[in-house]
Amino acid sequence: MQRDALIGFGLDSVIEVLSAVAVAWQFTHRDPERWEKPTVRAIGIAFFALAAYVIVDALLTLAGVQEVEHSPLGIGIATVSLLVMPALAWLEFRTGRELGSRSVVADAKQLLLCMCLSGTVLVGLLLNSLFGWMWADSVAALVVAGLAIREGVEAWRGDVESPLEVLEALGERESLDEH
């Protein structure tokens, strides 16, 4: 993984922490619902910032300005992230629904995007390491950037429904089938 991709991966983590801080800040106020819209919009801005960085980084790599290197450490970090992020996102989404908080649900979507970024980084690193396909990580990153932009627009509008609802609905259906 090129040095800049590692920085991008770290930047995603920083944005994730800032998103969580925004949600925590919202709940420090007497009337957290009053601060819901600005908090969700701040999370939307975080999606846009992540997309911008990922697009620039991917385009620089595809243009040959940056070189891609093999990174066993990057593969390990991306793998751990893929294992941990889905559980954290599910817990946060569930908490957000129980609280009726769109900002907490939006932050859970940020975790899902982080998971997608981890997956694309992992696939790109593996394709580069195994087959020498240096372009694979950049192409996958551009797909993630598109998702980040879509999620940013949805957060900005206040539409923060989560893809995890599909999983939850399946679980409820299975539960009903068992009875």
Automatic annotation (TrEMBL):
GO cellular-component term (any): membrane
Gene3D superfamilies named in the record: Cation efflux protein transmembrane domain
Record SUPFAM superfamilies: Cation efflux protein transmembrane domain-like
Top-level division of the source organism's lineage: Bacteria
Subcellular location field: Cytoplasmic vesicle, Secretory vesicle, Synaptic vesicle membrane; Early endosome membrane
Keyword ATP-binding: no
Domain Cation efflux protein transmembrane: 43-154
An example molecular function term from Gene Ontology annotations: monoatomic cation transmembrane transporter activity
UniProt KW Membrane keyword: yes
Regions crossing the membrane: 6-28, 40-65, 71-91, 111-136
Keyword annotations of the record: Cytoplasmic vesicle, Endosome, Membrane, Synapse, Transmembrane, Transmembrane helix, Zinc
Mode of membrane association: Multi-pass membrane protein
Family membership: Belongs to the TMEM163 family.
Entry protein name: Cation efflux protein transmembrane domain-containing protein
